[in-house]
Structure formats: C-alpha cells, structure tokens
Amino acid sequence: MESTLSRDEIALQARARAFSQAVVRPRAAAIDRDEQYPWDIVKALAEAGFVGMTVPAALGGQGRSFVDAVLVIEEMAKSCTVTARIVVETNMGAISTVMAYGSEAQKKLAARLVLEGDKPAICITEPDAGSDALAMTTRADRRGDTYVINGRKHWITGAGVSRLHLIFARVFDERGQELGIGGFLAVRDESKGLRVARREQTMGLRGMPEGELVFENLEVPASMAVLPPSGFSRGFADLMNAYNSQRVGAGTVAMGIAAGALDHALEWAKTREQFGRKIGEFQGLQWMLADMQTQLTASRLMLYTAARSRGPDGSAFPDPMLAAQAKIFASESAIKIVNDALQFFGARGYSRELPLERMARDVRMFTIGGGTAQVLRTLVASKMLGWKLPQTRDGYSPNPSLRDAAE
Ligand code: FAD
Q1: Which of 84, 151, 231, 233 lies 20 to 30 Å from 271 when distance is taken between CA atoms?
Q2: Which among 196, 364, 372 is the best mutation to test ligand 1's pocket, defined by most ligand atoms within 8 Å of the CB?
Q3: What tens digit of pLDDT does each residue of 47-103 get?
Q4: Is the pTM of this model over 0.85?
Q5: Which alpha helices (DSSP H) does 309-372 contain, by range?
C-alpha cells in the first residue's frame, strides 16, 4: 500500500503512527469510559502539528493535502476514534468551507482558533430536518449590519467544547424576502444567544460530546456570513461541496478503526490456541482474515483516490461521487470487519477489558453521520443517471428559491 504514497507521505504516516501508539493508545479506554473530551490529547495533537495541517501556510498552517490528513486520521483511528475525529474536523469539513469561501477576516479567525486546537462545529441537522436538510427552519434575519439567528439544531459534534460554529440557516433580507440557505460563523463564548440545551446519550464515540444547540436571537455580524461566489440562492450546494471533504475524513475514521481491529485479530490468531493449534491454523478464520484484509485494502484505495481527486468543476475538493462511494464502502465494510475481528476473541471480544467492543460501538456511527449510506447512494445514482433525484413527493423542495440546491 505504501507504494501508492510519496516519500513525504510515508514519513508523515510513520510520525502519526508513532504518536498514535505512544500518546493516544494509552488514553483511549479512559476517554471512552469517562466520556470526557480529551483536552490533553488536543494539546498534544496541536504541539505535534496534526491540527490545522491543511490550513494554508500564509495563515499559519502547513498547507498540507487531504491525503496527508487521511494518513494521519487512519493512524489515530487505529487507537482512538475520538482523537481521529478531532483530526478530521480540524483539517476537513467546516474549516475547508471557510478556507474556500470565507473572507480574509473569517479565514484568519478560523485558522487561529483551529491552530490553537479548536475543533469547529458544523450545525446543519435539526430535529425535523435530517437527511432532508433543506427542510431546516433555523432562520437568519438581516437587521442592519447583523443577522439575527433563531432555531434549534441537534446531534452537533463538539457541542459545548467547540468554539467556532458554522451555522446553516435560511436567510431573509430586511423586507422578509427569503434568499436561500447560508452559513454563519459564531464563536461560542463570544456570542450571546448560543446555548447547549442537552448532550445526546450516544452508543459510542463517548469522549466527543454530541448535543442540541439552541439559537435565541443570536446576533452575528453581517461580515460573518460565509458567502460562496454564487450567493445565497445556490450557496447551500457550494457550501456542502466544500464540506464534502469531511465525508472522506469520516470514511477514513471508519477504515482506521477497522485496520486497528484487524491488527488485534491477526495477532490473536497467531497467539490463541484451541484443539492444540493456533486458531489462525483453522481455514474458517483464515478466510475471514483474507476477506477482512481485502475489504480494508479496497476501502483504503477508494479513500486515497477520493482524497486526491478534484470536483468536476476543478474545485479543490474531493469529487462528490468518489467521496460518496468511498464513504459508503468504507463505513459498511468497517462495521463488518470490526464485528468479525471481535469474533476472533470469543468471549474476550465481548469484554470491556479489550478495545474490540468499544471499536464495535464507535464504528456503527459512520453509515449515519455526514450523510447516511442510503442518501449517499441516491447521490451516486443521480450522478450516474444524470438526473436530479429530488426526494419530496412533488419532486422539489417546498421553497422554490432552493430548487437548484436540492440536487
Ligand atoms: P433521517 O433523515 O430521519 O433518516 C432516517 C432513515 O431514513 C435513515 O436510515 C436514512 O438513510 C433513511 N432515509 C431518509 N431519507 C431517505 C431517502 N430519501 N432515501 C432513502 N432513505 C432515506 N449533523 C450536523 O449538522 N452536525 C454534526 O456535527 C453532526 N454530527 C453527528 C454525529 C453523530 C455521532 C451522528 C449520529 C449524527 C450527526 N449529525 C450531525 C447528524 C447526521 O448528519 C444526521 O443524523 C443524518 O444526516 C441523518 O439524519 P437523521 O438522523 O435525521 O435521519
């Protein structure tokens, strides 16, 4: 696999692997058990230069590629999913959106916070607008030089720990005319009217808070609206295109968990004896190992390819179709690989003393968050057929101004 990487990429991967094994692995079980965001790990990641790697050098980052980020994410995910997600969200996702479409002031703000270790929160999902994100009701009303935001989001990663928030809302001008969906930047402890209402009780990923956020007359300066060149009317599609990089990151976390689980299973297959033989001598397990490795290799290649790709418009973001396929395949394969790895350990795999049960809980998320495997399949089919595939009964979003963004 290394043969597909440059010398610099291999060196970065080796550095990330050593960090993951020495710093992250010893903390992983406690992060899960205590359900506490790992500020010590954030500090260590920042000192090692693994946060904000993709931020341009002119803004204090390293100007690294998405492939570099993917290599580091995989190594962290082998040890600790929460740590891997911090690396995703300080290098891909909301930060990429701001770097692509933000003003100079917005880029400087986001770069400073991320390089200090802040994991930006992206706020799209609402209780009644999940896969159907265009049905969101959170609104931003223009009042002079500010937007006033009201609404409610849930399942927001980093709720209560993230400082920078990229909030998606329907935008209305001073006459009450709807313009489309826009993104707005707010810093939690500097903005009145941004409240964490509750923390979700999650199955896994327990060191990373997921929460419900309420915006009550949250005032955001108009200069903090993130405006793609196409403006608000098609802005949602552009902003989501940039956010597309996060899908590659999320798929990589799933793949990294699977790689870590497979390492454990392989070691155990060479160690554990039953019937007077190493269990790895049984063909039933050998074929499982081969299938696990095959799925892992395919996932890894799809993710590398997506990370290196560019959008059809030549944009600096991964091709949406390649990113969607990579996330579907990697997340579904990872659930199977981790489940099979757990099986190698028999009863021990079911114990909380080994990391397999934590990995099995953590990996389950990745067919859901960041676009479900079903919705991503619709995206892939839509590109294949060359058709828009709107999912509402009448074929379009209830809001005519958002029709173009509904693809
Ligand atoms: P629903 O949309 O209600 O879907 C329910 C089921 O129906 C799913 O299986 C779905 O695939 C299926 N379905 C829906 N529509 C279709 C269709 N047209 N065709 C076929 N099947 C369909 N959101 C954020 O904004 N920010 C975050 O930081 C964030 N972090 C998250 C972290 C975690 C751990 C999780 C679990 C979620 C997070 N989310 C976040 C929310 C996530 O993006 C949504 O859960 C996801 O988009 C699905 O929405 P939903 O949960 O409302 O499911």
Answers
A1: 84
A2: 372
A3: 999 999 999 999 999 999 999 999 999 999 999 999 999 999 999 999 999 999 999
A4: yes
A5: 320-344, 356-363
Distance 153 CA to ligand 1 centre (A): 12
Who's near 181: CB < 8 A, 6+ residues apart? Answer: 134, 136, 168, 169, 170, 171, 232, 235, 236, 239, 402, 405
Cβ proximity of 46 and 116 under 8 Å: yes
Question: What are the backbone angles phi and psi of residue 316, rounded to the nearest 5°?
Answer: -80, 5
Percent of the chain exceeding pLDDT 70 equals 97
Q: Amino acid identity, residue 293? A: Q
E strands, 193-285, where? 194-199, 210-221, 225-226, 273-274, 277-278
Are 320 and 378 in contact, with CB atoms under 8 Å apart?
A: no
Q: List the structure tokens of 167.
A: 């909030």
User: CB-hemisphere CA count at 13 Å for 366?
Assistant: 36
Q: Which of 27-36, 316-325, 355-364 has the lowest mean pLDDT?
A: 316-325
Question: For residue 90, which of 72, 117, 124 has the smallest C-alpha distance?
Answer: 117
How far is ligand 1, taken at its centre, from the CA of residue 132, in Å? 9
